[in-house]
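Thread: quick sanity check before group meeting

JM: Hey all, I'm pulling together slides for Thursday and realized we never actually wrote out the predicted structure for the chain we discussed last week. Dropping the sequence here so it's in one place. If anyone has concerns about the input, flag it before I start.
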Amino acid sequence: MIQSLLIANRGEIACRIIRTARRLGIRTIAVYSDADAKALHVREADEAVHIGPSAARESYLIGDKIIAAAKQTGAEAIHPGYGFLSENADFAEKVIAAGLIWVGPQPSSIRAMGLKDAAKKLMDAAGVPTTPGYLGDDQSPDRLQCEADTIGYPVLIKAVAGGGGKGMRKVNAASDFADMLLSCKREAASSFGDDRVLIEKYIERPRHIEVQVFGDRQGNIVHLFERDCSLQRRHQKVIEEAPAPGMDDATRAAVCEAAVKAAKAVDYVGAGTIEFIADGSAGLRPDRIWFMEMNTRLQVEHPVTEEITGQDLVEWQLRIASGEPLPKRQDELAINGWAMEARLYAEDPAHEFLPSTGRLDHFVLGRSIRIDTGVEEGDRISPYYDPMIAKLIATGSTREEAIDRLVDTLDQVEVWPVKTNAGFLKRAAAHPDFRAGDVETSFIPSRIDDLVPGTEPTDGIWSLAANALLASDYGNAGIGADPWAGLTGFRANADDDRTVALAHGGATRLIDPDEAEPEGIATTGGNAVLVFSEGQAFAFTLPGAGGSAGGGVAGDGSLISPMPGRIIAVDARQGDTVTKGQKLVTLEAMKMEHSLTAPFDGVVAELNASEGAQVVEGTLLVRIEKAE
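JM (edit): ok, ran it. Output follows.
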């Protein structure tokens, strides 16, 4: 068995690998960037090595730095996790050439499955069913149009080197093909440096079915059954489950056999996932599932497979990399129960899923289900990396039971002040169509208005906030002998008045705590109360209590950078008179533009922003003084 392991990754997956390695008695080495100097994976590893600045391209994506760290610490092996360099064949070759053990497939297998057109040709030759389409070398617009016409519309144009939904266009009619092709090729060239495309038949009710496979160095390959990853937003998975709803024994046997054939075609070693697209218009059928691509690494959603099989897939990876045979034969593996995983992201569904960064001042997740995370309360969500906070994995003896546990956990998520998609996830998991197993890749886009929670608190949430403040030390201070210290007004000989004036999001209401049934979970601190309800967070204060108004604007008119970024526009000068809502500074961060606007009419009293400057989170950019 490997005795020491460097993990060439960060966050949740690094912590996940450390957990198994520690159980196996393996010494672990973390690597970290400037932004991750105090990260959980660094704290949990036996040793840690700094590898560069915060940007991934200057740290986690520089293979030579990672190999040097392994040599420096005496690591025997490197585990790449997922993302970053995990499917980089050149990096895998360098690891092996350096005399280190690569916890992953052979570089030749990574290359064979790296290009969609070559992979599909290989699968055709291996007898693995592939989607009807064109994979030819002739990339002339006329030939591609002719092939699309022959296949029949709608068709999908896909970049040969694509991924993550980029370089992909759906074409509904022949008259649209030329423009869509040009657009797809332009995006493919920009994103991947390769404008070649393939044409596929577009599946009207597609489901994303994938099969977990494993191979060892002795030539043995097994599957660990299927997962359904059909709930997606912008081609990114949101909720995954195993097994797939509606999968009968015959279809399962066919798709799993095809996955094993695919792995054998590239002499696969280690963990891999064969992804299929299924036509769900008439239910899952053996003749309506086709190979899509192979991921030559451990998947984000691997925990659902672990939960239904009782196997630790990271342990399998480490044992196979150590030269051991597969831990189980095919006939020793079976499905037991149901598992679901929801990806909790630091993002704001109410504002186009804009990423949210900052310190996790309050961070409480469920304790009755499996939680895989790379952060703890007090840690920071960085703008430099993927905004996933945690994976919530619920299990049950039935699908319905797993759904209920997942929904209950999402309902009780408490995160502040970072915004999350917990409410969105809860609505998706609780949706009657999802409960009925009516899943397909268009599930979320077609129901998005039903799935995104509102931003205003209900009467029950206002009521709970009022009750919480009245019951707090702050509230009790005013319900006793000193009327001047209380939350409520005072008049001699008046009846006891339990109404409370509360402010939220710029609105102030006088609340009678008994008017509505309280709902949610509350926590108080000083003159403020946080209410968590159905995965959302609502902050209430006493009117005039001050504090942040959100969006990088302080109550005194200071505009503060909400995250690290680059200033790309300054639309005001010191001394200018400005009006409420006027755009003053535009910040580029997390590949998005953020406009900071005047919170009220006034004068620019202080300006610390200049075009092109890099700023850190919390930087005072502009201060506005109210007009006289």
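AS: nice. The two ends are 74 Å apart (CA to CA). DSSP finds 18 helices and 36 strands in the chain.
JM: adding both to the slides.
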